[in-house]
Write a structure and sequence with these properties.
The complex is a heterodimer of chains A (about 280) and B (about 250). Chain A has one domain. Chain A is built from 12 helices and 2 strands. In chain A, helix 4 packs antiparallel against helix 9 and helix 4 packs across helix 10. Chain A is globular and about 65 Å long. Chain B has about 250 residues and is of the alpha/beta class. Chain B has one domain: P-loop containing nucleotide triphosphate hydrolases (Rossmann fold). In chain B, helix 6 links the parallel strand 7 and strand 8. The chains are: A mainly alpha (about 280), B alpha/beta (about 250). Chains A and B meet through strand 1, strand 2, helix 2, helix 6 and helix 12 of A and strand 1, strand 2, helix 1, helix 2 and strand 5 of B. Strand 1 of chain A pairs antiparallel with strand 1 of chain B.
Chain lengths: ~280, ~250
């Protein structure tokens, strides 16, 4: 019997070889992106199996949260509901997408221990699984976004093309963060707790539930909050505002630097991750 | 590019960092760095175990190798290395052929999902497309012999039923190289017969089987060659008829 399938593994050392192997891992994960998609959609279906609404629980609970916080905070902060609800809806949904990807990123490799320890599947496949799973969740929340924007008349003002660019930047940045915390979580079991606390902390320090204008002269501190740029990149265009150009620069540099560092760490740890598990 | 099915392992050494519960804590790790403990090997915070050392193995189409050895002798490590999960620290592993590893029953199994869903999941992991899986679903379902249970969550299955599901799904891929750990023995007599048939068909198709087991009868049934591992060091590959001599040695 002849076969075209071939696997060669060597104990070769050297940085160049490891970079090549890491790139090969990335390449084959892209070639088999369908597998990551199957795993991700299975995850979403599995989480809501047996429930009446299924994955639309994502939509419903997000809808309740938006309505509750929107109405309460509009009153507390003394702002107009028609302006505040769309702001809160966009903020919660897109911050949720970032924090979901990063928090679940911790489980990227740990959760795949069974598969990783007996197959030669690319590691990147599991990163895409985490990212795609969160994109599926996000898609369910888009129902709310569209409803809110249409209802409050932002639909005509919204710059969907710029928001799409913002979304690409948001995903590109969340993805490297997910992979990075995934590697560290496999090695150090404290990391998921740290990440979770950080994300909880971040949502209160990012203008999601409150308006950035409220900071007054201290507003410049927001420039040091990466989550602000990430959320704003999608939220501002959809609310008919323009994103400040330096935000694009920050996000692009962050994506480049983040992927650079993550890929370097992956190159060093790739062959060891399976032993961490 | 086509090539006959083969496994070629030369000078394989697999070292295994064992990260203790302590070593996984970030605090310990940071403490070690700040205190100025020895960097380099101790930075990893792990004890290294040499699980396999300088192992050589050549298998060609039609070979069925039995692995024997005490617990912890390196059988599973060798299987995991052959599956591509563990990379060599030294030496090389060269496998021509589609590999199916049946090492852990829980591979990609979602206990809350139905048998059918798990077959799909395993099939996808094994490299089948969604369509290929649907095309083979009836055949796989029949082979499991689980009938209506396939529509029930896998968590309701017994160990033997899970083994049937895993074995059926994994061998449905038309693997050229089948790597198996012990557990095949968990199925009942009926299943053993079915598994036997399928393994024979693999042999007829001139695939390669590597089976780790403590059960000498099982090894005699399926294998034509045998290798003994002892503390990560392998004996030369011998004919299965020498199994008793090898175990006595």
């Amino acid at each position: 019997m002849d076969t075209a399938t071939h696997m060669l593994r060597t104990g070769q050392r050297g940085a160049l070889f490891q970079v090549n192997m890491a790139l090969r891992d990335l390449r084959s994960s892209v070639e088999r992106i369908g597998l990551a998609w199957s795993l991700a959609s299975h995850d979403v279906v599995a989480r809501y199996r047996g429930s009446i609404l299924g994955p639309f629980w994502i939509t419903l609970s997000m809808g309740l949260m938006v309505a509750g916080i929107g109405l309460l905070n509009a009153k507390l902060l003394n702002v107009a509901v028609p302006d505040f609800i769309p702001f809160v809806a966009l903020g919660i949904v897109f911050f949720g997408a970032i924090s979901g990807t990063v928090t679940e990123g911790c489980d990227t490799f740990v959760g795949a221990a069974g598969i990783l320890s007996q197959t030669s599947l690319p590691m990147f496949t599991f990163v895409w699984r985490t990212v795609l799973r969160n994109l599926i969740n996000l898609a369910h929340n888009m129902v709310i976004i569209v409803a809110v924007l249409v209802y409050y008349g932002f639909w005509r003002k919204a710059d969907v093309a710029s928001a799409a660019v913002g979304l690409v930047l948001l995903v590109a940045n969340s993805a490297w963060a997910a992979m990075l915390v995934g590697i560290f979580s496999a090695r150090f079991r404290d990391v998921p707790q740290i990440v979770q606390s950080l994300m909880q902390f971040a949502i209160f320090f990012t203008p999601v539930f409150w308006l950035p204008e409220r900071l007054g002269s201290s507003r410049f501190v927001l420039d040091f909050n990466p989550f602000y740029h990430l959320v704003e990149a999608v939220r501002a265009p959809l609310l008919g505002k323009q994103l400040e150009p330096h935000s694009y620069l920050v996000l692009a540099l962050m994506a480049l630097a983040g992927w650079g560092v993550t890929f370097a760490i992956f190159t060093r740890t790739r062959r060891r991750i399976v032993h961490y598990l | 590019m086509s090539h006959p099915v083969s496994i070629s392992v030369s000078n394989l050494t697999v070292r295994f960092p064992v990260y203790g519960v302590d070593a996984k804590s970030l605090k310990k790790h940071l403490a070690r760095v700040t205190v100025g403990g020895r960097l380099g090997s101790s930075l990893a915070g792990a004890t290294e175990v040499t699980a396999l050392s300088d192992l050589n193995l050549q298998l060609k189409a039609g070979d069925r190798l039995g692995l024997v050895g005490h617990n912890g002798s390196g059988k599973t490590t060798l299987l995991r290395a052959l599956s591509g999960a563990y990379e060599p620290d030294e030496g090389s592993i060269d496998v021509h052929g589609r590999i199916a590893a049946l090492l852990d029953l829980n591979l990609g199994v979602d206990p809350a999902a139905t048998g059918y869903d798990n077959i799909r999941l395993r099939g996808r992991i094994a490299g089948l497309s969604a369509r290929e899986i649907e095309e083979r679903m009836d055949e796989i379902a029949e082979f499991t012999g689980l009938g209506p249970f396939l529509s029930m969550p896998v968590k309701t299955y017994s160990a033997g039923m899970q083994a049937r599901l895993a074995f059926a799904a994994a061998t449905a891929v038309e693997a050229d190289v089948l790597l198996m750990d012990e557990w095949i023995a968990v199925g009942d007599a009926d299943f053993q017969k079915l598994a036997h048939k399928r393994l024979l068909s693999l042999v007829e198709r001139a695939g390669i089987l590597v089976l780790a087991s403590h059960d000498t009868d099982l090894l005699r049934l399926y294998c034509n060659k045998v290798m003994r591992l002892k503390g990560g060091i392998a004996s030369p590959v011998a004919d299965i008829r020498k199994l008793d001599d090898l175990l006595a040695a």
